[in-house]
Fold:
Amino acid sequence: MTAATHDDHHAHGPEKGFMRWVTTTNHKDIGTLYLVTALIMFFVGGAMALVLRAELFEPGIQFVDPAFFNQMTTLHALIMVFGAVMPAFVGLANWMIPMMIGAPDMALPRMNNWSFWILPFAFVMLASTLFMEGGAPAAGWTFYPPLVLQGGNHLPFAIFTVHLLGMSSIMGAINIIVTVFNMRAPGMTMMKLPLFVWTWVITAFLLIAVMPVFAGAVTMLLTDKFFGTSFFNAAGGGDPVLYQHLFWFFGHPEVYIMILPSFGVISAVIPTFARKPLFGYSSMVYATAAIGLLSFIVWAHHQYTVGMPLAGELYFTYATMLIAVPTGVKVFNWLATMWRGAMTFETPMLFAIAFVVLFTMGGFTGLMMSISPADLQYHDTYFIVAHFHYVLVPGAVFALFAGTYYWLPKWTGHMYDESLGKLHFWLSTISVNVLFFPQHFVGLAGMPRRIPDYAVQFAEFNAMSSVGAFVFGFAQLIFAYVIYKAIKGGAKASSEVWEGAQEHGLEWHLPSPPPYHTWTSAPEIK
Amino acid sequence: MKKTIQLLASLGLMLWGVAHAETGSGTGVGWGALNLPVGVTETSREIHDLHMLILWICVGIGILVYGILIYSLIHHRKSKGAVPAQFHENTKLEIVWTIIPFLILLAMAVPATNVMIKAYDTDKVEKAQMTIKVTGYQWKWRYTYLDEGIDFFSSLDAKSNAARQLGSKIDPTTVEHYLLNVDHPLVVPVNKKIRILLTAADVLHAWWVPEFGWKKDAIPGFVTDGWIKVEKPGIYRGQCAELCGRDHGFMPIVVIAKNDEDYKKWVAEQQAQQQASKSDASKTYTLDELMVKGKEVYKSSCAACHSPEGEGTPGVFPAIKGSSVALGSKDDHVKLVVDGKNAMPAFKDQLSPVELAAVITYQRNGFGNNKGDVIQPSEIQAHQ
Structure:
């Protein structure tokens, strides 16, 4: 492989000042824009979650009107899904995919700029609904009619936000697919791609397949509300449940869009710190593809209570249970990668191990609720809330933390503060469990989700949960500070950064930080 | 990492302890504090058993997976001088850990299928002995006994409703069955297979009593169904389980299961009462009588949207105070309340003519509107 330093004197530096970020077509700059936006949205969505947890700290209504509570539930979910987790993974993809496959940049750099710059406008539009008469959307992130059709002026704004986010995601996905299929360095065959790249290729296909369905479904809401159609109105021959089928045909792949790239990050981090190659590389690729395919045929397990025919209930039960097989394969492969390795426990590895443990917890509850008769009890309770937060917070978000700590020295050229990183890890890991574990119990004991107030027998666990939420929320300020500190300075990072990392990817052959343009001449892969 | 697991394990043990303590004390509410209730129907018991089966299978797999992980974390660390092995595949092993989980899933699917088939048998193998129609409204339930001709609404009880207002200063722990009590509970006979038909008048709701083992969505314009056969007399509480707007958290369900004799007595009482309320409608009332009654009705039926002080919710629900309807013609006002319009539900099914007359009178004379006119139940009946 050629040393990238060789290319330095060809490199053109970035423009100076604000316009650099507005006009940039550089994958690293755009990656940074995505990541910074995601971090900001993570704090915005988190603040909304703290409003919810403050209200739920004790029985009775202390702080907010129930209508505002519903708006916070809705916006918290929309912002965390579309504003924090998805853009953060797109940011990682932008930064890492060209460096990992030996490409000089993304295949469609101008479109890359556009797909980022749509986002801030989309979120300003969504946030503006908070200041409208009647407030923000309050029917949950799922936008179920007829409830979503009630209320103030927010609906068209929320729907256009979804359209914009969909455009941005589809363009980002096309860019990733085109880049990976056309711009790999010579010798970088598909079955040599780092798993992070593979998981993103599959994710990109999911995005292209389902975002248009979501856009279509919300557009039908729009015409139902303003143009007199009756897609979802029984009085006009429509069916409210039709919307749910359309939504979850999008929504189930959507949750894998958030978790598959996490699998990719974890599959990069664990081998490095176990000092061993990833176990079962090809089975990892096939398992990811299998999960991606299955995600299209299980959607109605979100709707076991709508009164489907028995055959439907049973089919969706079996299909959903099947997902446990490839997911299990992944977990076993990670275990086998650690087995007889020589592990060290820097912050990225700590988050990766916590991911394996806690994501598996979420997997177990997921398996439980795949069983349709049992789900007749679990459905729409805090058990569900606990489940999807286990897969999304110590799942997707911890994978993002692991990835950030892992690649931060590469991006900035400085080692981050390891003791602050570890503090962030321990505070987050303990508090996230204090936050979400008790929710399993209140859910099983009968507490429905999306309620601003609850019966007094749920008080203790809710108080515990709220304490965990506030500790978790404030612990994230440490994360922001660690990133800021590493950008400003710190111990110089070598190009390899982690001991033996050059075995694990092309990015570790580039200097830290990498020059503005990398791999202007393609490396050769053995 | 190990510490985290120890912490989790001790937390788990602690909670397990609490669970058993709770079951022993018997709170009277009938909800276990930590787990699914065993419940009082065959379905709920079977679902509880199925839930425990899957839970223990998961616990078993968890012990295995986490055990291997912990062993590896302790022994395969660089600080202990571990030298990394370089193996990276083992086809046999990979086939084994694909097949075994598949077989475990198969073992779970069999009981799951059996339970689901039974839960779905509303009226086929075993015939239902009676039918109750349940209709979800924002934010109350309506129960219609198809054969007995009994029909009533069931809303959050007044004490909970007062305590749950923002800034009420009432401590919820002092309210009995806070948020889980209603004014008119559903009453059912024990040991009879009852078919429950579900629908909704406005948005989606879901009817759920955990002790019966299932929930089902109530969908406007469609009818879904389920069934119960309660085995033990008692009071069973549940809540709406599908987000249905502002007061989704405040439309509980209370079901009283009575033995056959008591149930028949209750049916006779209800039928007599419905007769009496019909004759009430032919009386003439004074302004004061209507204002007192109207205030009550307003609180339970109107205040959620139009606010207790009649100020409404700007941009969504119009104010009553100084509104053109309340100060306009009687007929338009009656028509709006009785027949509904857009988001405003038709109250003709929800309220009796006396209640309608009272609440319209209250709206025209309360909140400083002081219109001075009185609406009599007979005028409502004339409109209908």
User: Anything to note?
Assistant: Chain A touches chain B through 103 residues (CB under 8 Å). Residues 66-101 of chain A form the longest helix (36 residues).
